[in-house]
Amino acid sequence: MKEFMLLFRFPQSNIDPSKIPPAEFQALAKKWQDWAGGIAAQGRMASNGNRLALEGKVLKPGGVITDGPFVEIREMLGSFIVVKADSLEEATTLAHGCPALDSNGTVEIRPIIG
Prior knowledge:
alpha+beta, 2 helices, about 110 residues
């Protein structure tokens, strides 16, 4: 089996968890746990990523450092996991049902070359 990274991207306006009411945040967290748990139950979870912080830095050519991440884009990378699958198509099937899709987010599926 090969490994694939599932990258979860969200519109910047949807990514701040402090703006979600606590009950709604708990329900969303349960959706994520159930979805990822289903992948783990199939023995397909290679690495469970964590949610990424909103702040960061971006290093650009010439040594230029800006506040980040990626303030010039409309979507932010929110988190990732690594799954095991036989093909890109199979990894894409595992991405179906991801709660990021319920929040106008996207799931990018990328093979890991190793």
